[in-house]
Design a protein that fits this description.
Blueprint lengths: L1 H12 L3 H9 L11 H9 L3 H11 L3 H16 L3 H21 L3 H31 L8 H16 L9 H14 L3 H18 L2 H4 L4 H8 L4 H8 L11 E2 L6 E2 L28 E6 L5 H10 L7 H13 L7 E3 L1 H6 L5 E5 L5 E6 L6 E3 L6 E3 H11 L17
Parallel strand pairs: 3-4
Antiparallel strand pairs: 1-2, 3-6, 5-6, 7-8
Helix pairs in contact: 3-4, 5-6, 6-7, 7-8, 8-9, 9-10, 10-13
């Protein structure tokens, strides 16, 4: 071991990084792993972040990984490389899971799992934000104006129920949404966006941001009297284009584009499940097996049985749940009889990093739905397959899809 340690120290001192890599990968070589720290720093400086994190863990410096990722994320945000920010957050999410597994305490594992869920959420948000900014700047983008409008609405709703915007430029996002909303005749939502700009603009404004503002933003700031903006807004009709409104498939209520409480149904409080490419609502309803059924028993029941009447019993259960709920959302609870009526091709199961299992039922058989096995986002099946064939991976997390991405 001592000879290999001396050899490794020599390679590192002479910056022979290729030799360091070869010696590290040789299974028979036993050396002091702490010597690898300069190698990890060199990897990070040259953009090989994933390998640098791996070497840090091997050298016993896992605590450095969090500070390294935070530093890189702050730099990427400052340089407005938002797609890179998203990729770094995905790496940070996996790193949090690794740290949680390495710690023995239950509390530490739970805390790291929560951090992993938070970084996943930020990764998704910055991926969407990156595509919106590219669209607004006229950079080549696959987004259509309608998709850009819906993705803006999704991101604003997600940020509205958060205590921090995590570096996302809210005034800029509101302006993009307002302009797209006006061109798509979504006047009610445009009015709401302009009201937010007029009321809260100075809350977001800071000296550092002023340099980045467009001419239109500077024009809004120059208005000393907010009443002028209100007059402009009040000339617009109080309605949105019905074709762009999302319908809750659980209770049938139409949803406005902007909702201050997040992307939830305003009537039954169910989460709106969206295709993360087009941002249209998907016909998915969450359900849970009865408490008397284990997860294994529920899965066996769904996969073994399928009756000739797959919809009626479940519709009756949904209606019963809607009549008994009072301002509190609960997934529809189903027993073995209803599970037996399900067609397995309509059931989707999501197991998150917390170990929780969520069940979803597709209410429209003709609508193909895909689920990424890595980030657990849902998509229209044709859109997902086309993107995977074109880009080689998931539209949100870029993970190559090598396993089943459909129903159970």
């Amino acid at each position: 071991m001592q000879d290999y340690s001396r050899l490794m120290a020599f390679y590192i001192k002479t910056k022979s990084w290729l030799d360091v890599s070869k010696l590290r990968e040789e299974q028979c070589c036993d050396f002091d792993k702490e010597l690898l720290l300069p190698y990890a720093q060199w990897l990070a400086a040259n953009g090989n972040i994933v390998k640098a994190l791996e070497v840090n863990r091997e050298a016993g410096y896992s605590e450095r990984n969090t500070s390294l990722l935070n530093f890189l994320i702050k730099n990427a945000i400052a340089q407005e490389c938002f797609l890179e920010v998203s990729k770094l957050y995905w790496v940070a999410s996996k790193e949090n899971v690794s740290i949680g597994l390495a710690k023995t305490g239950k509390a530490s594992e739970v805390m790291q799992t929560k951090m992993s869920e938070q970084t996943k959420r930020l990764a998704i948000m910055y991926r969407i934000y990156s595509s919106i900014i590219d669209f607004s700047l006229g950079i080549f983008s696959t987004l259509s104006p309608e998709t850009a409008l819906l993705s803006c609405a999704y991101l604003l709703n997600a940020l509205s129920c958060s205590h921090a915007n995590h570096g996302i430029d809210m005034p800029r996002l509101l302006f993009i949404f307002a302009e797209l909303g006006r061109s798509h005749e979504c006047f009610q939502s445009t009015r709401a966006a302009y009201d937010l700009i007029a009321c809260d603009f100075h809350e977001y404004l800071c000296e550092e941001l002023k340099e980045k503002l467009s001419d239109e933003m500077m024009m809004i700031e120059s208005y000393s009297n907010r009443h002028k903006i209100s007059l402009l807004v009040k000339t617009l009709p109080m309605e949105d284009c019905e074709d762009l409104l999302t319908v809750c498939f659980r209770c049938g209520a139409s949803q406005s584009l902007l909702r201050p409480d997040g992307d939830y149904c305003s009537c039954c409080n169910a989460v709106i499940i969206r295709c993360m490419i087009t941002f249209h609502g998907l016909p998915l309803i969450e359900f849970v097996p009865h408490a008397s059924l284990s997860a294994k028993k529920a899965l066996d029941t769904i996969t073994r049985f399928s009756t000739a009447y797959p919809e009626k019993l479940f519709h009756d259960t949904i209606n019963l749940a809607l009549t008994t709920e009072i301002n509190v959302y609960h997934p529809v609870e189903v027993g073995s009889e209803i599970l037996e009526s399900f067609d397995r091709s309509d059931v989707y199961i999501v197991k998150d990093s917390k170990g929780d299992t969520k069940y979803y039922k597709n209410m429209i058989k003709n609508v193909g739905i895909a689920k990424c096995p890595s980030c657990f986002c849902f998509f229209h099946e044709q859109e997902f397959e086309f993107h995977c064939l074109k880009e080689g991976g998931c539209p949100i997390c870029d993970t190559p899809v090598t396993e089943n991405y459909g129903h159970i």
